[in-house]
Structures are given as structure tokens and as C-alpha cells.
Specification:
alpha/beta, Rossmann fold, 2 domains, five-stranded mixed sheet, 5 strands, 55% helix, elongated
Length: 188
Amino acid sequence: MNAPLEILLMICLIALAFITVQTQKLRRSAIYLGAFSLICSFTYLTYNAPDVAIAEAVIGCTLSTILLLIALKKYHVITIFYVETELGESAAVKKERKVFTTSFEHFMMEKGFEPQMIPTHIEENPLGHNDCFNLLIEHTQEEIIIYSSGIRYLEPEIKEYLESHKPEHLDVSFFMLAEQSGDDNEEQ
């Protein structure tokens, strides 16, 4: 085997193994594990083991990654839309928002959930489609408005966290959106 190629593959495997273990978000860790498995299959191929390479690519890279991602999507992922209303804001406001979103993500991870933060703008506000998110956070200069859909059991803990960790100059409002029944979803 070519020595530089062997060194490159080993460095990639070590780096991906380290990143997979150190990543705090489970979905990213599953994706890195799939990439690790893919590099392993290339390594087996370079060592003239095509049957092992195919098995690793099919089972390790494809099936395992898909099953992990489906399991994480089904049980632990919370989708959070973060609405940014003012586009021409100061660096201090941007830093305040970054600190807030980071601390809120850590809070959700401590509760055992995988927060999926999706930044958006007010023109794209998905309030009418509350089945596509669990939380919608609208952060303006005066207040933080939280719309919750489908995670009623977390409402008291989220309210308590927001009251204790919000910036002093902001008010916090929390609204529970009405959950749509299955019949309503089919009609839309």
C-alpha cells in the first residue's frame, strides 16, 4: 500500500474518532460516526479486502447512521425556531442574543434533549404551522416571546429557566399554542 495514503487514512480515522466522541450534539455524533465508517471501508479497500469494505459501507456507514438518526429524530430532538427581528443591530445586542441561545441550548441538553436551533426571520414566521416546531423564540429589543407547541410538560421548567437567565432589561412572555388534532392536519 502507498505509505502517504495509509498515513492520510489513519489521520482521518483518528480525527473522526476523536470528533465523534467529543461532539456534544448526538445527531452530529451519529453523522461523524457514519463518516468514520466510510473511511474505514476505504481503508479496507486499500488493503485488498473488498468484501469487508462493502459490508462496512452498507452496514456501518449506511444502515447504522440511518437508524441512529431516525431514533434521535423520533425521541429526543426538539426543533426551535429562533426569530431575528432586527437586522441592523449593534454588536452588543448580537453578543447578548448569542449568549442567550447558547445558554438555552445547554439547558435543553441538560434536560436530555437535542436542541435543533433554526435561525429565521419574521417574514418566514411559521406560527400557522405549529406542527413543524416545538418552540418558537422571538427575541426583540424589548422582550423575548416564546411560543410552545407540543411540549406542554416542559413549560414550567422553561419558564423558570427563562426568568432566571434572561437579560435584565427584557421581559419574557410564554404562550402555549393550541395543538391541532390529526383530522386538522390531514385537511391542511
